[in-house]
């Protein structure tokens, strides 16, 4: 038999590059190999299996050639690792999307299966014996035997776990602590188990969600029978949604990731505290897999590595606050960054360990042309700077939950104009709640993941009750507002998160929710209950009436915390704002906020009319004050920058005094 002739057919897409008319990018995802024996086209592996040994080599050579044409200088091992990681994510994402779809068809069974699983894992712990986990047979019996809880019910137990006492809340020994934003106190930390660190990145990247407590592994065979537990729904699912909404993100340009380089801290005993940087798989998809002690140095290095690559298509951050901090650092230090890119070495002004400096320098090379291009763009100003620095930028991915909603609006209106901002996941203390599978929608909504944590919902007319009746996933109603209650394997059961969500619809039997606000971030002088959502709406309305002003950040407090600094004897809101564009506010401008609050809240307007509360007092603080407060809070707690959010409503006098010392008007 004659040896078949080998014809390699390469099917690929080419597209011209901006400013480089003769250079093209090879779309490797459409690449295929075929053999042509005797005139018939058949799969290569069916005719000449040994020829497949040549395919990876040919694929790699084509990849390297295409990237060199684009001016990229990346190691071959990094290219191959990136390509394999993308393919692995694609496979996992497609598979887990199908599993998620299946779980939405019978949410009650899936939820109860996961609940019974984690209860059996922890039934011999001190908490499990106290609340008779062995006797739980379904969701109804669980709600009868176990009361609703708040953090105070766990504070002493978590402290004992930190001291090394075993099997208090979890059968598995926890390995790390983490924060749930916007808390910044030692007594508001949560536990994470080793198995969760190993498995949870497949459900959701830890660094994507500040303050995340992970799920433990489901390795009890009896507990798993009859349940549809999926531990891969999260990161792979949202990345699958991103790939479908923005197909060009399949290409081998890496995304730039900000705010994930801070090193772990140590708690009062053996346990480290912080947020995991992630697994090998996801490190391959990012530009800077280092850990650094100083947040400012970390942001500088991340910016440097991102700026040197003009082909980036995705910017990622654990939260919108982290991305705002990155652009603020860019605005302050762009001249230093350009100089480092021009000479190809890291500035000596950064006090880094020698081995870390060598690692960073190993990724740099002198690029005067890129430095000149960047300088021209910076001199034009920073409005819309992201798209001008990275012309191929397609997406910004960052969490927009809670305080980050305002940061997202700031990014959209200033640095990241005309770039979609995607909030991929919704998480709480016990783990993943939902995934946003509609990245193209402007208002993020999240499909709840039935196979993740067990969820209950408290109707808004029952929030003041100590033990209100709860509803399950299949019992909630569209357009209704609820407080979220969660139970997971990391120790918290029927835990009132304080998160308020609105059900916007259903996907099969599974609710789709929109995050509204956190009950703990509510101002309440005389029963008016001004939520974070209402306050932000009023503040943004007022800022639009301050000619030339743009809002950078804000914080507020009730006047009882302001001390002698407070103006007026009536109870009122003390509001600290950081602005760009103006450095002073007239009295009439300050009153605009109070007028906006009255338009937003009928209860507040009534209290103002009766004189029960005084007008809100607006204080203008100097630039960078809230970033300084963030660093100050980091020194008080065992978190990392990615795990800590500055609370909008300040509850501690020392934090109010911190901002008072930075007032300029």
From TrEMBL:
One of its GO terms (cellular component) is cytoplasm. The chain crosses the membrane at residues 51-69, 76-94. GO terms for molecular function: acid-amino acid ligase activity. Pfam families: GH3, GH3_C, GH3_M. Coiled coil: none annotated. Keywords: Membrane, Transmembrane, Transmembrane helix. Residues 535-648 form the GH3 C-terminal domain. Residues 446-518 form the GH3 middle domain. InterPro entries: GH3, GH3_C, GH3_M. The keyword rRNA-binding does not apply. This is GHDC protein. It comes from Polypterus senegalus (Senegal bichir). The gene is Ghdc.
